[in-house]
């Protein structure tokens, strides 16, 4: 085997290694993007469950107050308090929904771009 044949054979072995490294970076970037996306979904789900529990507690408290109300003004006050608390809860839920939507959009963009912003540098 001549020296030029050995150089060609040696350079052929480099390319599979480079492709393997590129593939590993691609898989790592995809896994990182998927992990970020799933983490954000989990957090959004936990906050949604907590919000549903808050709504349930709020409704239960209103029922208890209405059942113990001795007059129409007491019942009206309980309803007004409930309305204010429910509006506050809705505002908080909206804020969380916006935050999570933005984070999910960012994670989706990163996932769909295959993490190329990190792997191409």
Order of helices and strands: HHH
Structurally, how many domains make up the residues? 1
Mean pLDDT score: 82
Q: What is the number of strand segments?
A: 0
**Structural class label:** mainly alpha
What is the gyration radius calculated from CA atoms? Answer: 29 Å
Helicity level, as a percent range?
over 70%
Query: How many helices?
Result: 3
Assembly level: single chain
Largest sheet: none
Overall form: rod-shaped
Beta-strand portion reads under 5%
The stretches of 5 or more residues where confidence is low (pLDDT under 50) are: 117-121
* N→C terminal distance: 40 Å
Lay out the secondary structure:
Layout: H1 3-68, H2 72-112, H3 116-119
Helix pairs in contact: 1-2
Give an account of the 3D structure.
The chain is mainly α and 121 residues long. It has one domain. Helix content is 92%, strand content 0%. The chain has 3 helices and no strands. The protein has helices spanning 3-68, 72-112, 116-119. The longest helix is centred in the first third of the chain and has 66 residues, at 3-68. It is rod-shaped. Mean pLDDT is 82; it is low at 117-121.
In short:
With 121 residues, this protein is an all-alpha fold. The chain contains 3 helices and no strands.
């Amino acid at each position: 085997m001549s020296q030029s044949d050995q150089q060609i054979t040696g350079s052929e072995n480099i390319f599979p290694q480079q492709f393997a490294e590129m593939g590993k970076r691609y898989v790592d970037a995809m896994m990182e993007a998927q992990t970020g996306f799933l983490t954000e979904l989990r957090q959004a789900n936990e906050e949604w469950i907590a919000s549903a529990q808050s709504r349930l507690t709020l409704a239960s408290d209103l029922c208890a107050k209405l059942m113990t109300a001795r007059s129409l003004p007491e019942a009206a006050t309980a309803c007004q308090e409930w309305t204010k608390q429910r509006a506050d809860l809705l505002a908080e839920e909206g804020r969380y929904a916006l935050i999570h939507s933005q984070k999910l959009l960012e994670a989706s963009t990163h996932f769909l771009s295959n993490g190329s912003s990190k792997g191409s540098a």
